[in-house]
Amino acid sequence: MTIDLNELPRRRGTQSLKWDQGFGDPDVLPLWVADMDFKCSPAIVKAVSERALEGIYGYTIRTDEYENAITGWFRRRHDWNIEAGWITDSPGVVPSLSLAVQSLTNPGDEIILQSPVYSPFYDVILKNGRKLAESPLLLSNGRYEMNYGRLEALMRGGAKLLLLCSPQNPGGRVWTKEELVRLGDLCVKYGVKVVADEIHCDLVFPEHKHYPFASLSEAFADITITCLAPSKTFNIPGLSTSFAVISNPKLKRQFDDRIQALALSSVNFFGPPATIAAYNESEPWLEAVLAYVQSNQEYAVSFLSEQLPALTPIVSEGTYLLWVDCRELNLPPAELKRLMYKEARIAFNEGSQYGKEGEGFLRINLACPRDLLAEALNRFASAIQSRAN
Ligand SMILES: Cc1ncc(COP(=O)(O)O)c(C=O)c1O
């Protein structure tokens, strides 16, 4: 492993959404959108560079090597035997969520989500003309839990589909097998289909284990579209490469028909070599990144408890995102933004974008060198302390 995770790569001036979008001040430190301030694994950089040097960027086909890289990874890391025929390529996980909504429901249908949740979950329901059926997660002893009573009421009331975020963004839960089985049993009982966004499945700390929802039983697999990608895990979101896994042939046909209708089946030229290098050669890089992120989380949690005891971090079990309860500051969303961007000159994500239950929370991206995290937290603490004085 030759990457020094303590070193901040040059990102400003690279057309980076995270670093160059600006917040009215070029000095704002960006710890928001979920990409990492770590260079990719050397294997990925080599594979993409070699591909670029071919000098012709033509239409691309899917190879056995690509499929084996995916199936091998999920067998090794998640005890999940995916067949190559279950895989459909897609330009992104969010596009897959939207395609799944279109292929499995009709306009006006109710779709369940568990808030607070990654904001595009709202968009793929509402902008496709479907109805939101919200089951807020319960925050109990600093940990989110599913509200099975509410979920069952929504299903009994006719909801057609459930969007599952597993592991959960922004709350950082890695759902246990028991929690997922209880959820899945309800879905099977009420004929509710499931779209499982498992993009964070490989970003799980060693004390926890991710269970692919569709791997838990044939009955669950039969009602599920699982949306996956190497992009979050290996820091390649700009390569627009992801895939859906669907073992039920009828659901797969419906999903594939939407892909065809929108002419989205073309594979990104750089996607397959990056995916192969990620899944076949980048495990040591991932282990190092996970250990680093976990130590960043420990650092941030102890910083907050010493310097800002009014704030309560919700300790993540997975993902590189730390969700912080700032409700004791008593600031409405616009004021929380002002505090971040103008006074502290940092950009975390403001919680209300994840739904009403996110109001008063902030989400901090921990996938960055420690010095950057420390500087951002110091700026944040000084801004809050100077408001108090
Ligand atoms: C839960 C979740 N799904 C999907 C995405 C983005 O997926 P894509 O860029 O492949 O559309 C993210 C990015 O942060 C995410 O957190």
Write structural notes for this entry.
With 389 residues, the chain is an alpha/beta fold. It has two domains: 131 residues, Aspartate Aminotransferase, domain 1 (Alpha-Beta Complex); 237 residues, 3-Layer(aba) Sandwich (Aspartate Aminotransferase, domain 2), CATH 3.40.640.10. It is 42% helix and 14% strand. Strand 3, helix 5 and strand 4 form a beta-alpha-beta unit. The longest helix has 25 residues. The mean pLDDT is 97.
Number of domains: 2
> Level of helix content?
40-55%
Structural class: alpha/beta
CATH topology of the largest domain: Aspartate Aminotransferase, domain 2
Taken from the alpha-carbon principal axes, the silhouette is globular
Poorly predicted regions: none
Numbering strands along the chain, what is their spatial order in the largest sheet? Answer: 2-10-9-8-7-3-4
Which ligands does the model contain, each kind named once?
pyridoxal-5'-phosphate
What's the total helix number?
Answer: 14
Largest sheet: 7 strands, mixed
The CATH H-level superfamily of the largest domain is: Type I PLP-dependent aspartate aminotransferase-like (Major domain)
Q: What is the mean pLDDT?
A: 97
